From TrEMBL:
<dbReference type="GO" id="GO:0004386">
    <property type="term" value="F:helicase activity"/>
</dbReference>
<dbReference type="InterPro" id="IPR001650">
    <property type="entry name" value="Helicase_C-like"/>
</dbReference>
<keyword id="KW-0238">DNA-binding</keyword>
<keyword id="KW-0067">ATP-binding</keyword>
<keyword id="KW-0547">Nucleotide-binding</keyword>
<dbReference type="Pfam" id="PF17191">
    <property type="entry name" value="RecG_wedge"/>
</dbReference>
<dbReference type="Pfam" id="PF00271">
    <property type="entry name" value="Helicase_C"/>
</dbReference>
<keyword id="KW-0378">Hydrolase</keyword>
<dbReference type="InterPro" id="IPR014001">
    <property type="entry name" value="Helicase_ATP-bd"/>
</dbReference>
<keyword id="KW-0234">DNA repair</keyword>
<dbReference type="InterPro" id="IPR027417">
    <property type="entry name" value="P-loop_NTPase"/>
</dbReference>
<dbReference type="InterPro" id="IPR033454">
    <property type="entry name" value="RecG_wedge"/>
</dbReference>
<keyword id="KW-0347">Helicase</keyword>
<dbReference type="InterPro" id="IPR045562">
    <property type="entry name" value="RecG_dom3_C"/>
</dbReference>
<dbReference type="InterPro" id="IPR011545">
    <property type="entry name" value="DEAD/DEAH_box_helicase_dom"/>
</dbReference>
<dbReference type="Pfam" id="PF00270">
    <property type="entry name" value="DEAD"/>
</dbReference>
<feature type="domain" description="Helicase C-terminal">
    <location>
        <begin position="453"/>
        <end position="612"/>
    </location>
</feature>
Amino acid sequence: MRPDILNPLFAETGTLDGVGPKLARPLGKLGLTRVRDLAYHLPERFVTRRPVDDLDQAGEGEQIVVALTPSEHRAARSGRGPYRVLAHDSAGNVCALTYFGRASYTAKKQLPVGEKRWVAGRLDRYGDMLQIVHPDHVSEAGDATLGHLCEPVYALSEGLTQPRLAGLVGQALERLPDLPEWIEPGQRAARDWPDWRRALAQAHRGEDSAARDRLAYDELLANSLALMLVRADNRRRRGQPLTGDGRLRERLELPFPLTGAQTRSIAEIEGDLGQEAPMLRLLQGDVGAGKTVVALHAMLIAVEAGRQAALLAPTEILARQHFETLRAMLRPTGAEIALLTGRDKGRARESILMGLMDGTINVVVGTHAIFQDSVAYRDLALVVIDEQHRFGVAQRLQLAAKGRRTPHTLAMTATPIPRTLTLAQYGEMDVSRLDEMPAGRQPIDTRVVAQERLADVVEAVGRHVAGGQQAYWVCPMVREHESEDIAAAEARHAALQERFGDGVVLVHGQLAPERKDAAMARFAAGEAKLLVATTVIEVGVDVPAATLMVIEQAERFGLAQLHQLRGRVGRGSEKSTCLLLRGDALSETGRERLALMRETQDGFRLAEEDLRLRGGGELLGTRQSGDTPFRVATLDQIQRLLPLAHDDARLLMERDGGLEGERGSAARVLLYLFERDWGVQLLRGG
Ligand code: ADP
Ligand code: MG
């Protein structure tokens, strides 16, 4: 049960003044559904403005305060386009004040023709005219007040304005309760951190690094603590030690020898399986590193021990692929394997359920359907989860409840994250790393091409496809709203379809799952030659005949993400190519990133470099979803503060593993605050 003291924070945003269903929608889009979310919606940056006498003194792109006198209102023509108010400064320069949508009503009221007003905003140019789009402030008097404001700039969604959001954040901050201190007093004093409430207030008021650090530290501490509680709980559970006699593994007829890294990982897993405490191991290996064979060995150990194993995949199509691969490899062993997805119905499903219950099926592969309540196992001893980052720790625990005793868990991820982040994501899980690629891999020929050469790229794709091979075309997520990105991808798809016919399919995040799967399936079967996609293809599909990857605006992606995308090609015996299209406004970091992509294919190295490049000057806009499990802590803060938080959490666990004492109970509040309450729930059980 959540401590009562947190209730005001978990009240819905609808309880704030002025928030009705109309505002709740854009707030929801930003993930702001409760008062707490608003309090933690920290500014992306702050603006201060320079008062100028006239526009000659101001540079383009500069935030200014200037006196302007409106001379003419120009309504949007036929309801489209913006509403413009033409105004002049004291030197006679003309500037347009531009308003989109409903904001024009305010303009009409605030900017009467012939009356001088102080206007605060960012000076831009539109064609050969100076303009300020949606001025932040328009007032009758005083550059002195406007010029001294330091205002937060928040991430917005359509239907919200800065003042509106700032007002709501203000209301949220007023409702903050006094919470007990969970940070060790010495730690707080040494860094001069404010208490929690003050830290939040300060973080919204200006660039206060101590306040921001404290808030990030809270989140990191909550995360470390929760993961440690999971680990401690796991140690207390009793699993079933599994020892295999090797009789099935001996019968495998793999067409290749295992790599050293595979052999080592299998040995590590075998060691864990032999223990009574359930295994909690992460198998980390780049795309193509050969994780499947490692999973196969682990599952065969379970089968040799007379038990069952399950492999959980994040999507239907991946489940199908795993099933086909594993079925072929298992054939000489005689082990029974089945596929179970949400789509199986009727008799076929019944017979699989029977097989799982009576134990005639040894291995099952599927989507989360394999863990529905209606699915009962005779003796499930090992769960393999592919692409772990799609599933939270909470789900993993749910799985744990399925077997008669807690099954062993092997999580597999193709995201080669740096060591610091491994700690943040997986806490105390044991890690096996496949840091050696199978021999004979052809490097992917990676080239950086200017966007202006798009026509040549399309030609190259044409030749490639005409030669019977397949290709991916990736459109980035760059715009303010997801719908704009989808529109861009749809437009690219339409253009390529016009050029190449209907062998071009489109996949994006807003497509209905059946349509997405259908498009993927056509591509996997080779019927479709070109797959246009937003980054949804990042995880998953294995189509060896796809040997060309085009990535538009590649500089917008993080290195790790580019690497994941590139990993979709180079999976067969044919030589593969990756074309990184770059825009013309390439930053230094962008240039460095693309150069690294050309230089190396080592995922672990790229992950470390990615962290280095983004770490210091991370823009919030470049944060990738699923990057880290944090919404407050930035990469830089993770690197600086996670080791501290981790040690602090460990100390607390050692002194007060049940979180019964005073600081322990404050720590419980912290866990609920950051919704790591699954950690607390384990306490009660144990
Ligand atoms: P991952 O799941 O790690 O991305 P896979 O398990 O799908 O990689 O393996 C990629 C390809 O490499 C498969 O075709 C697999 O058969 C092959 N492979 C795996 N291990 C080896 C090895 N030791 N030597 C050669 N090929 C291998
Ligand atoms: Mg795989």
